[in-house]
Design brief:
Helices cover 29% and strands 41% of the residues. The chain is an alpha+beta fold. Strand 3 and strand 4 form a beta hairpin. Helix 1 packs antiparallel against helix 2.
Length: 97
């Protein structure tokens, strides 16, 4: 197993493609994106209409080397400040195949 930093990011789905492009630009090429997540936070209930997908959220999950984690957070922070969302950072171990 390899030590990694797990970063979970929830943003408005309209912002997800731009976020993924920004992550690729700083060297994050592997990710999982899950559309249609919803929840409740300081801005109230957030999530889309089940039928139209309007105002959907997307969760982006990345596992990066510890030396890249601060760059990911620095990349995400302006988006969160402007549009809201969530970013969780934790230590993890990855099973390499």
């Amino acid at each position: 197993m390899q030590e990694v930093i797990r970063i979970e990011i929830v943003v408005d789905s309209l912002d997800a493609e731009g976020l993924l492009a920004d992550l690729e630009r700083i060297g994050v090429h592997d990710y999982t994106a899950i559309k249609g997540v919803f929840g409740r936070g300081s801005r109230g209930r957030r999530g889309g209409d089940l039928f139209s997908g309007v105002f959907d959220n997307t969760m982006v999950l990345v596992a990066v080397d510890p030396d890249l984690a601060d760059r990911v957070v620095d990349t995400v922070r302006p988006l969160l400040a402007a549009r809201g969302g969530l970013c969780l950072v934790s230590e993890a171990r990855s099973v390499r195949h």
